[in-house]
Amino acid sequence: MENGGLRFKYLLTCSFCVSFFLTLFYSNTIVAQTVSGTVTDARTGETLIGATILETTSGKGTVTNAHGRYTLTPGVTTAELRVSYIGYTPQQFTVGMRRDTALNVRLEPSVNLEEVTITADRVQRHEVSQMSAIEIPVEQIKMVPVIFGEADILKAIQLLPGVQSGGEGQSGLYVRGGGPDENLFLLDGIPLYNVNHLGGFFSAFNSNALKNVTLYKGSFPARFSGRISSVLDITTNNGNDKEWHGTASVGLIAANVSVEGPIVKERTTLSASLRRTYFDILMQPLIMMAAAETGGDMNAGYYFYDLNAKLTHKFNDRSRLYASFYMGDDALYAKISEGGGFYNKEYMKIHYGWGNMSAALRWNYELTPQLFMNVTGAYTRYRNLLSVGGEMEEQLYDGTLDREEMEMSYNSGIQDFTARADFDYTPRPEHNIRFGGVVTHHLFSPEVAGFKMRSEESGTVLENIDTTLGESKVRAEEMTLYVEDDWSITDVLKVNAGVALAGFAVEGAFYPSVQPRLSGRLMLSDDLSLKAGYAYMTQYLHLLSTSNVSLPTDLWVPVTRRIPPMNSHQMALGAFYNRWDIDFSAEVYYKWMNNLMEYLPGSTFFGNSTGWEDKVCLGQGRAYGLELLAQKTVGKVTGWVGYTLSRTLRQFDMLNDGKEFPAKYDRIHDLSITLQYKHSDNFDIAVTWVYATGNTATLALHQFEGQEESAQWTSDGLATSSYGYVESRNNFRMPSYHRMDVSLNFHKQKKHGVRTWNISVYNLYNRQNPFLVYRGYRHGSPVLKQLSLFPILPSVAYIYKF
Amino acid sequence: MTAALLLGGCEKVLEVDFDDVTPQVVVMSSVHPDTTVNVRLTYSRFILDDSPFRTVDDAMLSLEVNGVDVHAAQSCNSGDYVLDYRPQEGDRLKLRVKVPGYDEVTATTEVPRAAVVTNVRGTALASGDGENRYSVRFILDDPSGEQNYYFVRLYKKSFYYSYYQYFNCNDYMLTDGVDVMTMLEGDFDNQSSSLLAFPDDNINGTSHEVELTMTAEVPLDSFYVEVTSMSRDRYLYELSAKLYDNGDTFDELFSEPVQIHCNVDGGIGIFAACTRKLFPITTAK
């Protein structure tokens, strides 16, 4: 009751603060005439995110939001509007501004790649107030060469400065010294958990389904909260509203098919993508042959699939409804029967499955030309299920049967029920205000174990057990209110100021949090700007992970009475410059993190969440660094060069004698070069080279003879043992990591579409990069051994777009 | 093809320059009140060296007690040094070790006061299944205002063998209802263990009755309960060594690394004190 009262007061205070903020700053707002509308692709009807609308007389401009909407109040009687977007032919309009005007723009894709004029008036990276954010065009992501030829956005994101991968081939992101559980993955605004397939070697995002990807590493706008290190905001395709199109591809391990088109022309569209691996199908004959040699039978394999579907309905120009669905699962299975045994039926089976599912319903509505609303209701679920069982059956001489069946199961997961409302308000050309709120009901199922056993003798049931343990669920409520204003104070100075008010209620405890956010941009010249930002973030969820290898048993758990929320303060300063259509940036950052969680020495978390609070300790972290980026997104040659100089340190009273130590993923140097060259419509090539300081590892370089008081006393005194001595945590630096990948695309126009052969080579010069270092033996002598995962890996894929 | 490539290029010997990893002096000493100070000195060896540990036989040791050099005479036998001084409870000791070719190695410890244990008694429990189950109870009176560490175990001297026979305790509880798991946080194995080790975090300055139960293979007429008061360094060393012992290859891949706690400046090892108290138990049905 007490907590309920506290929560109510907190929410009341939050609501008051937001109202006060809005009232204080905008009570005297003079609403001038505005022009508003949607910018779409003329051929597909797909909304364009980040298109520029510029009033050429006044120089005032804006960009379209995540729904392709814009609102501009140019403050002139006749507006000369120029609408442009990379890769599209710009259009100009003359609009009389005596009243509010709706202007929907359809841009034609450009056939000329050298659209210098387009880039000249687009709102460039150095001009926006947001810093520490990078947007990568999806077409570029698809061209980045990757393992097994499967385009992967997370692998592409890992090539950006300030972002590191966990290990060879892993999809985990380590952003500015944060851990892999500190990233918020938003798919159409809905958070996803465990966004990996196959232990992290593939991400759960099918690149064919994506429209826009933006990574925020710092200076987070107030509309984002819930994680302390990064936000990956992913928007999926709405679908072509004029005609049906699709893409089908067959690669080395997976096949992919995507379709999009109108159900009702220019009103209702569908976009759907399905990807599935067929490793299990290819391997099955070999497995059966191997099993047959021993007289048995075996059916085993591994697969994953993911399905994205989005239905969009346009009621009118002011109102749209989106229903989106994502489902992705991994499954590892085996059923093994041994032949020639005593029983006439005997097998054991195992099934291990895990995956995400999310469903969301969103409604966009333009309340007034200045006020745009987006309301969302969503459900997200992550679960994993392990089941092991078997059956034995024996036919007795009298024809009756003796049978025994057994099955053990274990499952865990998390479900989120989310409701959110977001508003985009442009009362004056200088202000773009966003405000809204989110309420999420989390339902954690930490562990549910089941046991079934049934035995029969000559048809008589001897034993029949069916029991379930640990069905108790943990419920938690998370709520956030936010307001932010992107405010052009003068032509030179622009700020984005906001605050997020968050709260988390779990097991009778309530954790409120006030999170101020501020970033600003100072234009020093037309090409050069300085930016600075500060963000305070709080995170209420932890990931219990066995190691830095992503496993399906990794389990999300909420903060508790004993484990408070993590939080971080981050400051960043940067210079941004645009020349020759290249965005140059240099950013420095410093980040403090509190209540970080590490596992106590010797702890493991194999699907064991009970008592997890006893296995962890809390501490602090700090990370600082310099990030340099040169990015080119237009022209025949595109790509980016990124370099990061950074340190990531941790301090825990319970670890390393309380002394500060480098984090597992502390890499001092990190360089990545990604170049893509589009030679013609028939051929393009992409090359990536990465270099990084080796990961740290804890390695005992000394052994010593030790005695334990707690050891057994013998008649000769205390027994002695040999121990490894670790001078400090993460004391060993693995060899540096570097690798080159190449991808070649051969396109050909066919009767019904475009055929593409993709040939890619991962790890072109066969560098054996360290994944794990351990003590082993060679010729009877102890040596240090290194385990490398991927040598040179060529792959080929066939893609057909129709 | 992919599977073949994956399996093909996996493992290689790592060539790393470890020239700067030289043997260090290892100090092992468990100091007890009213007993001479015994110190074992050896050299550490490189992780890739499987040869036997070498003892340090030419070291010069000195001992300061409460800030005063006590000029204790030393004797040495294959790395085992005996300093002829018997410290008392509450003494603060500083050990200096000089080994030719090495910088001076030092370590300090304070001899803890004995645990305040009263009303120790044992009972043979009635058992219908033929097992020999026993219960031991005692009152532990933890002094206030100081951090204390304890460990408790039950044992008897083996009649047949030349070593002590330790009994696994199956259950630990405080009879006044304090949460056992929280209370005994830090024990080495909370299911069944030959000893309990715990800090006084949750019982600081209070008195509690402790009950242990155990099962023996044969009926026992008598055995001992040992309640040891340890210095913090000794507790952390014992805890980390036990965690290290519990690790195996599988755990190494998927569990957090274990650092053995050391308190020796300029070297490796542990120089730490503990004060043991033994209570003979005669069982009665």
Please tell me about this protein's structure:
- The complex is a heterodimer of chains A (802) and B (285).
- Chain A has 802 residues and is mainly beta.
- Chain A has two domains: 31-117, Sandwich (Immunoglobulin-like); 133-695 and 734-801, TonB-dependent receptor, beta-barrel domain (Maltoporin, Chain A).
- Helices cover 7% and strands 58% of the residues of chain A.
- Chain A contains five helices and 51 strands.
- In chain A, the strands form eleven sheets. Chain A has a 22-stranded antiparallel barrel. A five-stranded mixed sheet of chain A has the order 9-16-17-12-13. In chain A, strands 1, 4, 7 and 8 form a four-stranded mixed sheet that branches.
- Chain B folds into two domains: 25-110, Immunoglobulin-like (Sandwich); 116-242 and 276-282, Immunoglobulin-like.
- Chain B is built from four helices and 19 strands.
- Chain B has helices spanning 2-8, 180-183, 232-246, 249-254, and strands spanning 11-13, 25-31, 37-43, 45-46, 60-65, 68-69, 74-77, 80-83, 92-98, 105-110, 116-125, 132-141, 149-157, 164-167, 169-174, 196-199, 207-216, 222-230, 268-282.
- In chain B, strands 2, 3, 7, 8, 13, 14, 16, 18 and 19 form a nine-stranded mixed sheet that branches.
- Chain B is globular and about 65 Å long.
Topology-level CATH name of the largest domain in chain A: Maltoporin, Chain A
State which percent range the strand residues of chain B make up: 35-45%
What's the oligomerization state? heterodimer
Radius of gyration of chain A: 29 Å
Tally of structural domains of chain B: 2
Would you identify the regions of chain A where 5 or more consecutive residues have pLDDT less than 50? 23-31, 113-121
Biggest interface between protein chains, with counts per chain? A-B, 68 and 69 residues
The radius of gyration computed from the alpha-carbon positions of chain B, rounded to a whole number of angstroms, is: 23 Å
Distance between the termini of chain A: 61 Å
What's the total number of strands of chain A? 51
Strand content of chain A: over 45%
Query: What would you call the shape of chain A?
Result: globular
Q: What's the architecture of the largest domain in chain A, going by CATH?
A: Beta Barrel
CATH class of the largest domain in chain A: Mainly Beta
- Under the CATH scheme, which architecture of the largest domain in chain B would be assigned? Sandwich
Q: Please give the number of β-strands of chain B.
A: 19
**Shape, per Cα inertia axes of chain B:** globular
Q: Can you tell me the number of structural domains of chain A? A: 2
